[in-house]
From TrEMBL:
Family that this chain belongs to: Belongs to the HAD-like hydrolase superfamily. CbbY/CbbZ/Gph/YieH family.
Organism encoding this protein: Wenzhouxiangella marina
Pathway named in the protein's UniProt entry: Organic acid metabolism; glycolate biosynthesis; glycolate from 2-phosphoglycolate: step 1/1
Known catalytic reactions: 2-phosphoglycolate + H2O = glycolate + phosphate
Enzyme Commission number(s) of this protein: 3.1.3.18
A Gene Ontology BP annotation from the UniProt entry: DNA repair
Gene Ontology molecular function, alphabetical: phosphoglycolate phosphatase activity
Pfam families, alphabetized: HAD_2 (PF13419)
InterPro entries: HAD-like_hydrolase_sf, HAD-like_sf, HAD_2, HAD_sf, PGP-like_dom2
Name of this protein: phosphoglycolate phosphatase
Signal peptide feature range: none
Record's GO cellular component terms: cytosol
Length: 216
């Protein structure tokens, strides 16, 4: 994880991290919750490989690929139900990726400003950051105020304006093609980690640096 520092472009002043699948190692936990719902609705369960091949933003499109019929089960109700299961045990069952705390300490020691831009519920992320003891490392945390995991672009624009960020001196680090889309919309370089919620095969064609693993 500490090797990420060598991939930071020269001149970078601020690093904006995604949360789920980037700092928080919650892929298997998310998969278990999704499979429990699929079983309840008599839909085919996912393997880990299949999950990472089809997971996407907005999450509503992903639910359609899973086979949910929104005319019978509206997406907002499904998303709320999934999030209730997620928040119930995430603090006790999910940890940060190995060496995340050390990497963050190294970045702060080297003078980088840090922020989080996430499609998760902002208040929930604040609670988890405090739970893991890294909340004070981040100047800003921008998330959503609902559980439908839609686009982060508008919140990203608000974050950049609030912090007065120069896109050319700001690196966005994430684990999905949506993080790349956000970086492109903000005019900022993006570094993607392909050991989160999407596979290397999904991310590799994108026009940014993609690491097969953060530990390489």
């Amino acid at each position: 994880m500490r090797n990420l520092i060598q991939h930071i472009p020269a001149g970078t002043e601020t690093i904006v991290f995604d949360w789920n699948g980037t700092l928080l190692d919650d892929v298997d936990y998310c998969l278990s919750i999704t499979n429990a719902m699929l079983q309840e609705f008599a839909l085919p369960k996912l393997t880990r490989t299949r999950y990472r091949d089809i997971f996407t933003f907005p999450v509503q499109s992903y639910y359609q690929q899973l086979g949910f019929d929104f005319s019978r089960h509206p997406f907002p109700a499904l998303a709320t139900r999934w999030m209730q299961s997620y928040t119930a045990d995430v603090a006790t069952k999910v940890d940060l990726f190995h060496e995340t705390e050390t990497m963050i300490a190294d970045l702060k020691r080297n003078g980088y400003r840090l922020a989080i831009l996430t499609a998760a519920i902002e208040s929930d992320v604040h609670e988890l950051l405090a739970h893991h003891g890294i909340d004070e490392a981040f100047d800003e945390v921008y998330g959503l105020d609902h559980c439908e995991a839609s686009s982060k672009v508008e919140r990203g624009k608000q974050l950049y304006a609030s912090m007065g960020l120069d896109p050319g001196r700001t690196l966005l680090i994430g684990d999905t093609d949506h993080d790349f889309e956000v970086g492109r919309a903000l005019g900022a370089p993006t570094l993607l980690l392909a050991d989160g919620h999407q596979s290397y095969e999904r991310l590799q064609p994108l026009e940014c640096k993609v690491l097969p693993t953060r530990y390489g």
